[in-house]
Amino acid sequence: MGICQARPVFPLLDDVTFFSETAMNLYTQLNFGGNCEEAFRFYEKHLGGKINMMMNQSQAPGAPSAAGKAIIHARMTIGDTELIGNDVPSSVFKQMRSVYLYLSVDSAKEAERVHKLLAGGGEIYMPMEETFYATRFSMLRDRFGVSWTIIHERPRQ
Predict the structure, then answer these.
(1) Rounded to two decimals, what is the model's pTM?
(2) Residues 6-29 pLDDT 10s
(3) Which residues contact 82 (CB under 8 A, 6 or more apart)?
(4) Torsion over CA of 78, 82, 86 and 91, rounded to 10 degrees?
């Protein structure tokens, strides 16, 4: 009788690394059609965010004197989340359709405040209401074209 030897199931994958030992961060990047700065300043003022960086075309190293004011890179912190933003040419800008920023707040009162604030000039998909999993829940697109889910979750039992 011969001896059975174990062979790799996927011999060609032996040298493939499936994860890295280096740190990675995953951020949300929002493209705007020319109103990135306005949106970030609005979120900073009303959602308690902090803008950490904002650069427009004319501030880029070596920018020509005729460079515009479109934002090429903006970064802000809201809670524990880093949000990245920039303007894209209006010819290629499209409002988000199936991606939402999911904003969890610590009270029903705060959910109502944020909903009212973000809904102004925007479009409400699901009005603020109570659900079986949340005391307050809504879905909307704000006036900047960003889609939001706002929730105050029920306490876990």
Answers:
(1) 0.79
(2) 555 555 555 555 555 777 788 999
(3) 25, 27, 28, 75, 76
(4) -90
